[in-house]
């Protein structure tokens, strides 16, 4: 069973993304890990290289900043890296740059991947979510917080990153057939200093809205 991890990142230092920790958290489960490094204004590529793992492979990409409807550029970039994963990979583990898994879940995740590796009916594996908000002692709950999402998918290129890359569906928009995991993704996107959070939000909303809305 071959497992390839993948993610996308741009301006990790400028916007305080814990991408090194995100990659490191899933690296023990992966035989290789592909990182799509977008055109950045800081030392993002050097940051990824500092992980110093032979598993890491960098794909240099240029983000199309004109794709400002619904965060589409995020799924475009995610699909670029997914499509670069070699045919001999069985499972593809997607982690976003502000997410981590806990080491206590590694064995359980590995067992589930082995169990469903050759089950053609299972297209992906579904994680529970914990969203930290404002501080590491607080967790966001309620309808605005998604409670589950797909982060492990079969190496089937008919599967596509969906809309703003929050999850995955088939190329024609159908939901995947997934199995739930007894494991969580820990999401840290809302735990930053106020200055870093403001800068991140301004940059993030550029992927959804035009210049007039941004003003």
Instruction: Kindly estimate the percentage of residues that lie in beta strands according to DSSP.
Output: 25-35%
Inertia-based shape = globular
Structural class: alpha/beta
Number of separate strands: 11
Overall mean pLDDT stands at: 91
> What radius of gyration results from the CA coordinates?
17 Å
- Termini separation comes to 50 Å
Major beta sheet summary: 9 strands, mixed
Helical coverage, percent range: 10-25%
Q: Note the run of SSEs as H and E.
A: EHEHEHEEHEEEEEEHH
Tell me the number of helical segments per DSSP (H or I, 4 or more residues long).
Answer: 6
pLDDT < 50 runs, ≥5 residues: none
Quick structural gist:
With 215 residues, the chain is an alpha/beta fold.
Structural features, described:
It is a single chain. By secondary structure, the chain is an alpha/beta fold. Helix content is 25%, strand content 31%. The chain has six helices and eleven strands. The protein has helices at residues 19-26, 44-49, 72-83, 106-116, 194-205, 211-214, and strands at 3-9, 32-38, 56-61, 91-94, 99-101, 124-133, 139-140, 148-154, 159-162, 167-170, 178-190. Strands 1, 2, 3, 4, 5, 6, 7, 8 and 11 form a nine-stranded mixed β-sheet that branches. A hairpin with a 5-residue loop joins strand 6 (124-133) and strand 7. The chain is globular, with a radius of gyration of 17 Å. 31% of the residues are buried. The mean pLDDT is 91.
